[in-house]
Amino acid sequence: MADARTEEIGKSVTCSSLLMGLKSTVEGLLANQSINVWNIYGGLNRVCKHVEDILLHRIKLQEEKADDNQVSYWKFIQELKWLNPTLGPKIELIIRCNESKQDRCLHWLRDSLNDHTLSSQLHTLVCNKQHLYQHYYDPNQPLKMLIVAI
């Protein structure tokens, strides 16, 4: 499922359209002026899907295969524990859940959105150019723009 979606994203979707999808979803959620936007029409799931699509865009496929041979960005995220050691316990907790790499990615993404820490964690990941180029082809496109968007 994610593998087919990743191939589709890599071939037909541009960086700007990925970001516009996230932007329109967030604007729609905020337009309701609700205290808890995650409960509006599956808001958390919709935002997670858009962010996941952005994180999967231009990822180096040969290195990022998940347990079930689907594409995953877990290796990219897992290195947060070395790039920012204060996040080590959070990453280790996710690892101990014995989930697939794909589920770990979603677990991290949901927790980060709920804790309002996604932007700072992505900033840590994106600012280390060596780390970024290790996991992404032409990483200057969607990920850095995502930091600005968030």
Q: Total number of β-strand segments? A: 0
Low-confidence parts: none
Backbone structural class: mainly alpha
Report the span from N to C terminus. Answer: 27 Å
CATH level 1 class label: Mainly Alpha
CATH topology: Methane Monooxygenase Hydroxylase, Chain G, domain 1
Count of DSSP H/I helices: 10
- The coarse overall form would be globular
Q: Can you name the CATH architecture? A: Up-down Bundle
Major sheet attributes: none
Q: What is the succession of H and E elements?
A: HHHHHHHHHH
What is this entry, summarized?
With 150 residues, the chain is an all-alpha fold. Helices cover 66% and strands 0% of the residues.
Structural notes for this entry:
This protein has one domain (2-149): Up-down Bundle (Methane Monooxygenase Hydroxylase, Chain G, domain 1). The protein has helices at residues 2-12, 15-31, 43-56, 74-78, 80-83, 88-96, 101-114, 118-127, 129-135, 142-149. The protein is 66% helix and 0% strand. It has ten helices and no strands. The protein has 150 residues and is an all-alpha fold. This is RUN domain-containing protein. Residues 38-150 form the RUN domain.
How are the SSEs ordered, and which strands pair?
Blueprint: H1 2-12, H2 15-31, H3 43-56, H4 74-78, H5 80-83, H6 88-96, H7 101-114, H8 118-127, H9 129-135, H10 142-149
Pfam families: RUN
Domain RUN: 38-150
Organism: Lottia gigantea
